[in-house]
Amino acid sequence: MSLVSVIGAGSLANVFANVLHDFLPEFKLHSVLARNQEKVQVFASKYNCSAVFSFEDFLKNAAPVVVELAGGAALKEYTLPILKSGRTLICLSSGAFTDDAFKQEAICTAAKNNGRICIVNGAIGGLDFLQTCALQRGASEVVIETTKSPKSLLGAPALEGKTLDLTKKMVVFEGGVQEAIKGFPKNINVGVITALASENPHTKVKIVSDPEVHSNTHKIIYRSALADAVMEFSGKPDPANPKSSTTAALSAAACLKNLYSPISFW
C-alpha cells in the first residue's frame, strides 16, 4: 500500500480522499496539513490519517507523494521545501506558476533533489495533445474560453467595485494569462495549465458570465502549422465550492494512480 499526504482540508480535499477510499484502495492517506485546525481534525478523524498543525512537523514525516489542494498561496509557501526533500508534489493550484521566477526555482530545486512536480489537468483535458504540438517549430495560437455562472465569479479581484449583471450573458474578461490569474485567482487555473502545457506564454483567456449555465465550460482552441483543434470540457461546479469543479480533485487522484500504475495513458 502506498502512502500519500495532503495539504488542504476543504471541499476538494474531501473529494480526493473519498476517491481514494472508494476507488483506489491501494493508496492510504498518511497525513493532512491545513491552516484551519478544526477542519484538519475533522478530516483526519474521517479518513483515519494524522492531523498535523505545522509545516515543519508535516515535512518531517510526510509520505513520498504530497498532494496540494489548498490554493496558490499554500503552493508557493510549501513547494520548495517539499521538493528539496526529494518528494513528488501533485498540485492543483497551477496559477502560482505564472510567477516565472518561482516556476524556474521550483524546476531547478526538483532537478537537484530528485523531486518531481506534477501539475494536473484540473477541470480540462488535452494536455497531452498540447505538449505534443509544443515539440514543433513555428508559432501557435492558443485561446481558452471559460464560461461560468455569475455566482462562480463573485468575489474575484477583477470585479471589485463593479456590478456583475446576474441576468444576462456577458464577457467579463479578455486578455493574457498573467492578468487573468491575478483578476480571477480561483477561476482560471485552467488558463495557466493550458499555457504551460502548450509552452505558449501568449495564450489568450476569455471569461464569460452566463446565468443560464449549470456547468463550468472550458473551450480550448489551438491552431498551428502542424494541427488545429477545438476541445471543450463541461463539468458541474463543486456544490461546496462553486468556484471550482469536482473533476479538479479527481484529476489529482488520477495523476496519483498514474504515478504508480504499470500502464499509463498519454
UniProtKB/TrEMBL annotation:
GO terms for biological process: NAD+ biosynthetic process. The iminoaspartate product is unstable in aqueous solution and can decompose to oxaloacetate and ammonia. It is an enzyme of class 1 (oxidoreductase). Specifically catalyzes the NAD or NADP-dependent dehydrogenation of L-aspartate to iminoaspartate. The keyword Isomerase does not apply. Pathway: Cofactor biosynthesis; NAD(+) biosynthesis; iminoaspartate from L-aspartate (dehydrogenase route): step 1/1. This is L-aspartate dehydrogenase. It comes from Parasutterella excrementihominis. Residues 167-252 form the Aspartate dehydrogenase domain. NAD(+) binds at residues 123, 189. Residues 8-119 form the Aspartate/homoserine dehydrogenase NAD-binding domain.
